[in-house]
Amino acid sequence: MFRRSFNRFCAGEEKRVGTRTVFVGNHPVSETEAYIAQKFCDNRIISSKYTLWNFLPKNLFEQFRRIANFYFLIIFLIQVTVDTPTSPITSGLPLFFVITVTAIKQGYEDWLRHRADNEVNKSTVYIIENAKRVKKESEKIKVGDIVEVQADETFPCDLILLSSCTVDGTCYVTTASLDGESNCKTHYAVRDTIELRTVESIDNLRAAIECEQPQSDLYKSLGPENLLLKGATLKNTKKIYGVAVYTGMETKMALNYQGKSQKRSAVEKSINAFLIVYLFILLTKAAICTTLKYVWQSTPYNDEPWYNQKTQKERETWKVLKMFTDFLSFMVLFNFIIPVSMYVTVEMQKFLGSFFISWDNDFYDEEINEGALVNTSDLNEELGQVDYVFTDKTGTLTENSMEFIECCIDGHKYKGVAQETDGLSQTDGPLPYLDRADKNREELFLRALCLCHTVEVKPNDTVDGVTESSELTYMSSSPDEIALVKGAKKYGFTFVGVQNGYMRVENQRKEIEEYELLHTLNFDSVRRRMSVIVKTQSGDILLFCKGADSAVFPRVQNHEIDLIKVHVEHNAMEGYRTLCIAFKEIAPDDYERVNRQLIEAKMALQDREEKMEKVFDEIETDMHLIGATAVEDKLQDQAAETIEALHAAGLKVWVLTGDKMETAKSTCYACRLFQTNTELLELTTKTIEESERKEDRLHELLTEYRKKLLREFPKSTRSLKKAWTEHQEYGLIIDGSTLSLILNSSQDSGSNNYRSIFLQICMKCTAVLCCRMAPLQKAQIVRMVKNLKGSPITLSIGDGANDVSMILESHVGIGIKGKEGRQASRNSDYAVPKFKHLKKLLLAHGHLYYVRIAHLVQYFFYKPLYDAAYLTMYNICFTSLPILAYSLLEQHINIDTLTSDPRLYMKISGNAMLQLGPFLYWTFLAAFEGTVFFFGTYFLFQTTSLDENGKVYGNWTFGTIIFTILVFTVTLKLALDTRFWTWINHLVIWGSLAFYVFFSFFWGGIIWPFLKQQRMYFIFAQMLSSVSIWLTIILLIFVSLSPEMLRIVLRSVRRRSTRSNLSCKKASDSLSTRPSVRPLLLRTFSDESNIF
Amino acid sequence: MTWSATARGAHQPDNTAFTQQRLPAWHPLLSASIALPLFFCAGLAFIGLGLGLYYSSNGIKELAYDYTGDPGTGNCSVCATAGQGRAPPPPCSCAWYFSLPELFQGPVYLYYELTNFYQNNRRYGVSRDDSQLSGLPSSLRHPVNECAPYQYSAAGLPIAPCGAIANSLFNDSFSLWHQRQPNGPYVEVPLDRTGIAWWTDYHVKFRNPPLVNGSLALAFRGTAPPPNWHRPVYELSPDPNNTGFINQDFVVWMRTAALPTFRKLYARIRQGNYSAGLPRGAYRVNITYNYPVRAFSGHKRLIFSSISWMGGKNPFLGIAYLLVGSLCIFVGFVMLVVYIRYQDQNEDEEDDE
């Protein structure tokens, strides 16, 4: 039994608030020390919001926090307690309905989350207990348990690697779902426990681990190479043993995971604003009415005429109280100006509307056999409002697979696949060439590609069948290397694998060449190159080196550079990753020396890294440059087009990635986020330099950049969009550590200053690239932008678990259903299979939904302004269906045109259609129509006999006339606004009018036994028997619709004026619109949509 | 809410016109070329209609007399002052004399009009019990609470018909006398007091309670008349088809008016010599003056009116139609001008987008 504390896990951390001591296997370390079972949380992950018993109160509480719900609750209570003109049912029922529907919806969503949690929590894991493998559920893991993990399993909690099945105690891990890097990382077992490879031996281990308390920063502790994080996947290693140190909600992943909060769309916010305005109007109205009532009542014969005496109780009521109840009942009477049915309809519209997204065939992806997924239906219209797009790189912009594109050997360029070569077949023929280099050089180059790497070959499973048995699966910590090896294979040199320290390469003649691998000089980001030293069969010792041009060029003969430099630069411009290949022959006696040095350095206990570096440096000199390669991090289909479209739509695209800066930069070039003429401003560790004066330097840079930008854009934000097209474009690159320097240097006074300067710079750049971001930092950036002045709408798109926090933080989160698991899509609001789908999602769906919902909302605020209280109940049925159909089906602009002209998007940004102007317009329109209705009928009723038989009409006829006019006007107005008449629209609009008539007959045709007052009896039928009333109805409908008609006509006249005769014809038939005339048309089309 | 495409083997969404939002659709564009003729046509049609309405409304004759009895306005002022401050006012009668120089084209309808009477007041409007009025015996004994303070009498008996509306039933009565020759005798003109209520009200909505031993009076036993009434509801008229809840005056009154100034039909003149209208000659209306209106500064008027296909005299509709029609045409012209000007411009600046 030995004891050892692994203090290094918390080394270097000053603010060691608390450390935890973990006893491996939960065995006490020594008899003398009393074993105190510490309390750690269990390994359960909880992302759900409710439990069974707290659902009802918590959900109700959440719902009544919504201003409208609360308001209706109050109204309902008033109606119950105070004597009011309307029955409490009229407001209680819709409210109940809304609450129930929402509760059911949220309950269902939460149930899904529960299920997802259970899936994770109940997954089986193996734990070593008393020298036996015990099968357990994942949630039962306790801190200190020894866990066995097998290949391709994910780690159930944060583990310290004790031992693996390999001799050297290494294991390969991919952290794709944590930080998006899908390559394999090597982790090492703790030295002292490497040997414990059996169940028995590991159970005998008595040790304690002292480590820091859970922390969220991934990169701070990703360093320790023994820590395996929850969520990462074991690759290429049969099994490992590890001891659990952090479990459940304390794992790095869970700490990086942010709680899901309810997202509100901007439209909902403006609804709430309108609501407050209307509430104010309501209160004023009620107050005015109460005052008027008491003024009117001040004459005694009005207050209590002999024909209408009060009851004793009424007389005795205290006056102030009476006034108050009067006020309340006026409020209830007028409460219909705030439409409860709107909320039902809006919910329905959103819910049904989101079906269209999941139904859209354009979002269907063959590969994963799935379409789009809608998780939140609340945000459809928000898609039309986005200002900032934050995108992940790996798996989102790129496919996350590298492809060998071209190479050059001695300045001769070789490109593409062998198809168009002069008749030579691909396998045994030489490279397709423009002009060829020496054959020997070619082969040398290809051999270099095959040898200079750390790729491992994974033999294929037999399952794959005969056809693929010749295929080799390469595994490597760097996808570039795989691409290179595959590239070499394409040209006839196949790397077969490593056997007993010999690298085996199949050459163009199908012969196996064996090279003894003497040394590998590993890649690191400082040197930016790697080398191998091999011994050929003939006994020559060769060194192959590959690395970034800047790292290789200084180490080769000068005259060789020029030839290749041209190619390298050219490739870099195209957005490829370039690597240079060099070689050197080492004389045997030289090698002896080198070998000794290397071994010495490797054995060194102190400053090992530095020493090795020094040795490497010495070895990699005086090399001969053979050539260069270009590898493409393959972009997703149409990623560049999408980004361009987004740019054109006035969106700002930020790329947030966990990747290295160089890689990210080249991707940005490739997807045209940065143009070749974009001037880059870099705020990275490189530019700032690791020095004492980090902050000063940062400050300098910031101010310098700002000056530069301010000079460039003298007029600030207003002309920004225009400025982009005219001025030099700027791109900003910042990395994680610099960002945290900017954001977190909170103690000193300048920090806020930094922040604001940084933001100013960001705002002025066309594109921003943030690399080396931890998930939480991504979220931080999103939050920072979200809180900017004018609170722009942000959208995040990503595919991995590392993007989850960012997706949750932004207004709209979009998940890509990618290869890196489903966490992102599960936590997102929308999930699409590919990045390119973003374009249609935003430009077409977003736009349409926004226009639809804006109309819907305005319509609702307009509609019930003069609503007869007694008809509320069926008001919902009559006038809601048409607008619902409208809001689902309206396409004021064709989808194709929307996708093809992103500029249209700008027109609706900033919530343009729900601003004060249109709002006032609708309100005044409604007020106007209300006046027309009332006074029209009022004057008509100057004589009460409207029939040829001289009979008189009463109160209820008056109301019914007004209501009929109202229903017709409102529905017909909608018909006027509809520009996309499908059969459903026809059905619903005419159907609802017919239904209204039918219902009125029905409602008035029968004495309803359950009603106290039969006031509607036969009113409608009687009403229709009067010609005058018919004429009045027609007239008033016409009058109230005429402003709208005028507006439409004027618009069309204006439209005519701005378009040529040619396009005029085509506009009327917009389905057949040719792209050539589009821009012209669209502007006018969108002009009109703007008027609302 | 979460769903993936349903479990149809492949998860490919349906490729239908509906799901792909590509339903065939009609794109109406209300362009000027459609709207201009529309406006002109509508304008012309409206003007035509308006003229028709205006003239037919003008053709309607109305003869009105305010018999409220403000001091110095005829002999009803005696009754008015007599009833001042006394409730119920003592019965009083007065008369209104008028002469027609020519035939008053019939059919002629007799209305009474009240002003400043708020039948549309909410407290007043709900003060009735429709199920009592539909003859439900249980409601007869137990009027609804809305009827208060006219729910139970001082003696504790249920009031039938209950409520403020019934209690305030208009109880002036009129008779019309015609003097064919000067200084000749006055002949009573027959007033048809039936058929003045809505058919449905009279036949369906209002029903007497089931008779007890063939007697309506017994059916109403145990109830009290409204406090302002001089006689119980079953004695409103000797005609068994016009008494109780189905008394037509009562039914008309119970249909509450929309505005504080309202008319209600009193009688139709369509019998005998008077079916064509009121012939020329001198007339006298005998008024039984009961109904106090001066307490709420209201007025009572008596109106003879003929009727056209569009109802009573109301110039509003005609004028409104004329106005809207001319506005339509005016707007049409304005638009035409705008339209032409824009088109000219368009030709000039073809490429100025």
TrEMBL record, chain B:
Question: Which GO CC annotations does the UniProt entry carry?
Answer: endoplasmic reticulum membrane; Golgi apparatus; phospholipid-translocating ATPase complex; plasma membrane
Keyword annotations for this protein, in alphabetical order, are: Membrane, Transmembrane, Transmembrane helix
- Listed PANTHER family: CELL CYCLE CONTROL PROTEIN 50, CELL CYCLE CONTROL PROTEIN 50B
Which stretches are transmembrane?
none
Where does this protein come from, organism-wise? Ovis aries (Sheep)
Name by which UniProt lists this protein: Cell cycle control protein
A molecular function (GO) term: aminophospholipid flippase activity
Instruction: Give the family this protein belongs to, as stated in its UniProt record.
Output: Belongs to the CDC50/LEM3 family.
The record's subcellular locations are: Membrane
Question: Could you tell me which InterPro entries the record lists for this protein?
Answer: CDC50/LEM3_fam
Q: Name one Pfam family in it.
A: CDC50
Q: Which GO terms describe its biological process?
A: positive regulation of protein exit from endoplasmic reticulum
